[in-house]
Specification:
Strand order of the largest sheet of chain A: 9-8-11-10-12-13-14
Largest sheet of chain B: 7 strands, antiparallel
Helix content of chain A: 40-55%
CATH architecture of the largest domain in chain B: 2-Layer Sandwich
Strand content of chain B: 25-35%
Shape of chain B: globular
Number of helices of chain A: 18
Shape of chain A: elongated
Distance between the termini of chain A: 13 Å
Largest sheet of chain A: 7 strands, mixed
Number of domains of chain A: 3
Number of strands of chain A: 20
CATH topology of the largest domain in chain B: D-amino Acid Aminotransferase, Chain A, domain 1
Structural class of chain A: alpha/beta
CATH class of the largest domain in chain B: Alpha Beta
Number of domains of chain B: 2
Oligomer: heterodimer
Number of strands of chain B: 11
Radius of gyration of chain B: 19 Å
Distance between the termini of chain B: 19 Å
CATH class of the largest domain in chain A: Alpha Beta
CATH topology of the largest domain in chain A: Rossmann fold
Largest interface: A-B, 30 and 34 residues
Strand content of chain A: 15-25%
CATH superfamily of the largest domain in chain A: Succinyl-CoA synthetase domains
Radius of gyration of chain A: 26 Å
Order of helices and strands of chain B: EHEHEEHEEEHEHHHEEE
Chain lengths: ~500, ~240
Amino acid sequence: MSSTYTPKSHTDSFWQALFQADSIAVIGAKETPGSWGGDAMRACVDSARAKQGRRVYPVNPNETEVMGIRSYPTVLDIPDTVDLAVIVVPAAVVPQVFRQCAEKGIRAAVIVSAGFSEVDGDGSKYEAEIVDIAQKEGLHFVGPNCVGHADMHSRIASAAMASRIPAGPLALLSQSGTLGGSIMQIAAGRGVGLSKMISTGNEADLRLEDYLEYLAYDDDTRVIAAYIEGLRDGRRFFNLTKEITREKPVVVMKSGTTGKSARAARSHTGALSGSDEIYTAAFRQAGVIRAEDEEELGDLVLALLHLPLPRGNRVAILTMGGGFGVVAAELCEKEGLELADLEDKTLKKLGEILLPRWTPGNPVDMVGVRPTEGDTTVMSCLQLLIADNNIDSVISLLPLMIRFRWLSEDMKPEQIKAMQREYQRNLKILYQDIQQYKKPLVFVNRLAIRPPESDEVSESHPEVIIPEYSHPRRAARVLHSLAWYKHYLDTRKK
Amino acid sequence: MPKAKQASRTILLTEVMAKEMLKKAGIPVIETRLAKTRDEAVAISKEMGYPVAMKIVSPDIVHKSDIGGVVLGIASAARAGRAYRQIISSVSKSVPNARIEGVSVQKTAPAGVEIIIGMIKDPQFGPAIMFGLGGVLVEVLRDVAFRLVPVDPVDAAEMIREIKGFVLLQGYRGQPPVDIKRLEEIIVKVSNFIKKNPRIVELDLNPLIATGNSIVAVDARIVTSSQASLYPGKAGP
């Protein structure tokens, strides 16, 4: 790993306290739902309920009790050790309570409070004070000016927005609290759970680079996503990601890309180098996958978690009807993919499955096929395409099972269940093919056709996931990014 | 956090010094020699073979051609002598206090594709190498690619292919293709050069002229700082 990394820092008691705390103090805890103090307290009460033996202590000199738990005037009055402090008092008071945390022997704090270096006035002074205390007393903190943190596996959270997010393999770092929340929701909406989430705030002590280094060695994390507005130490980010991306994909959404920051330089090179050009260079060189927006970030994460990386840019499209196929083909080419020439043997076999008036080619247009119940045309076509040596990835503009919702309304529950089982079985077969041939397949569901749902099956966790996107452009962008990442890894093998 | 402001002075090296440094690093530059007198200018011109170009050499002058400091296409000994005098008198008139070291005499570059390779130091990421097609349109079209130092051969290959103008390097409309491998090597050499010389804060090789069988830097600008730091985001030593 990079030279700045010391294994000790990973097992440092700070990280233990942050993600595994047995005892949490909420300084500035309130009853009021929707207030920062109320939300942080609620999140910490939920954390305490999630793990046996975990305690939470409200600290608020104006209350005797918060959410039914006895409140203490200061953290020093708590008759127990405290591992983690969540601080939600006004900025002017933070240095004082933070000093008490140090005195109490607390190793980690999450400072949610705002009003520090991000505002004019005394904010910067308070921030310098808490940094000074942290350095002298040897403790670390997240924030200030953040929405908190969460570990979904140990079920600990200071961020209320994380409370309903399932545990999973995605770690999220966000330099914006609200955008982080939005990304979490989008990911969760696609069935992607989170390992850890950190709203990094002003990064007065710990920076995005520090969290990144921690996540590199976090076994619960398989993919790292980050929303970045500006890095404090770009070189370190670059050196870290260059190493991390060999093992774990890193997806970044970076804002502030449109302003052309002219440098005060006497050279042509200086005049041509805006900050975005340099970020772009760093990402490309370090294997960082870039997402334009939260939706694309969600698309990419889903694919990276469930699909193998394609060997190249050659794509096959399965469609029903020329229009969808033509539009998808154009978008694929615009996004840098190449329409594959299918092997003769694939065309021949497709000819045997499809109607005689089928025109051989790519996109493969299943024109005229009316799949009835138990029809396996889509399944067979996809299997043939995945096995074709001339293609690297497949976009299916058809769902695996073509059953319109209104047709399923008259079905008996047993029939629906049988269909569901068949659907899951086929999905599993396809998933195995995808892994075996190392070719990603994505579905594009433009008509929002779904297999009939039965409560029993839809609530259980699906055994395999093949990503489905709402538009071929999104599918094309994802496949292009995956191919780019694969190419990056192949050319940087060491 | 307040960053300690460090007093650092920057110096623009003379073209002759810059090219000397680059040549030592194995980066191809067009033969350029300093003439301190008119007679020297004539003798060097004759030795190099006409036509030659002459440029003022002064640490105080950034834009040489604006003040009559450049004469191109000098084709005879008589013209070489005249060019020397003309440059010295014109520059002395425009910038009376300029320290003049003499005039650089250089071979006239062959016709070919103009390329720019440059370096800036980003406050966050440190030194970055830029590659693009040179010439007057470079700042308008912004058809350039950046990579952070160290640039390895794979990075260099990618940045060359990243620009839209790549087709021009492949031999557009009957032109011989540019030696892409050689170009990759030069980019990597520039990156290594920057790594070894942390005092350099700005570099422009503009243009390099690429023909079917050669790539050579015709003009070079190097700005150095009194403080050595590869990564200006961090305090220097």
